[in-house]
Design brief:
CATH class: Alpha Beta
Strand order of the largest sheet: 6-5-4-3-2-1-14
Largest sheet: 7 strands, mixed
CATH topology: Metallo-beta-lactamase, Chain A
Bound molecules: zinc ion
Number of domains: 1
CATH architecture: 4-Layer Sandwich
């Protein structure tokens, strides 16, 4: 599996960048995890958006879904230009019916509901979901193929269950929207220390901090997570790639 950071900012995109979006590739299968503001533009540094095989969304906050509408336009326009007839599935929870309904657009994209009750096969990848602690329903996802695992927390306040969910993953893509001494629980986000605690308890190989704050010195996030978690830590940056 290969994961590429398309956008890593919490809340809104930094200048010329994107909010949440990660490209996951395995065996020529390409899945976009979240599709926030700026993602459609940044994604084109790596691939043509209409070549996506699937999109999987954690929740319906704008910084995770803002570019779904323009993705649909891109696929529609490319269909006129190149005759590509495929329909791109967009997997998401259906706990918000109005938002879920928007994922189906003509036969361009089709919304497909996932749940946390059973694993879901998406192309060659097995996805498992877990509901997080966030002001709106949001799901973390564990993605597995050939004995490797990537876990993406989505947005969440600290929860004990996250460590079990991320157990022994190769990569933990963990939100860290707050600095260590802050309290993210009310906003439904984690601090860097909490991200470190999840990574340590889960015994993951690499902690990738993301959903970054727009203030302060980001290197402090790495330092704070490192107080608890002693293996490799990286701060997400656009275009950063990890090959598993
Ligand atoms: Zn959110």
């Amino acid at each position: 599996m290969k994961i590429t950071v398309i956008g890593c900012w919490g809340g809104y995109p930094a200048k010329n960048e994107a909010s949440s979006g990660y490209l996951l590739e395995y065996d020529d299968y390409r899945v976009l995890l979240d599709c926030g503001s700026g993602v459609l533009s940044q994604l084109q540094n790596h691939m043509k958006p209409d070549d996506l095989d699937a999109v999987v969304l954690t929740h319906y906050h704008a910084d995770h879904i803002a570019d779904i509408g323009v993705l649909q336009h891109a696929v529609l326009i490319q269909r006129y230009l190149n005759g590509n007839q495929k329909t791109i599935p967009i997997y998401a929870h259906a706990l918000d019916e109005a938002e879920f309904d928007k994922l189906t657009y003509k036969d361009i994209t089709k919304g497909i509901a996932y749940s946390d009750s059973q694993p879901l096969q998406i192309g060659p990848l097995t996805f498992t979901f877990m509901k997080t602690k966030h002001p709106v329903p949001c799901f973390a996802m564990r993605i597995e193929a050939e004995g490797q695992a990537i876990v993406y927390t989505g947005d969440s306040a600290y929860m004990e269950e996250m460590s079990e969910f991320a157990k022994d993953a190769n990569v933990l893509l963990c939100e860290s929207n707050f600095y260590g001494d802050m309290d993210g629980s009310g906003a439904g986000h984690m601090t860097a220390r909490e991200a470190g605690r999840v990574a340590e308890k889960a015994n993951v190989q690499l902690l990738l901090l993301t959903h970054l704050p727009h203030y302060g010195d980001l290197s402090q996030l790495k330092q704070e997570a490192g107080e608890v978690y002693k293996r490799e830590i990286a701060i997400a940056r656009k275009d950063m790639e990890f090959q598993l």
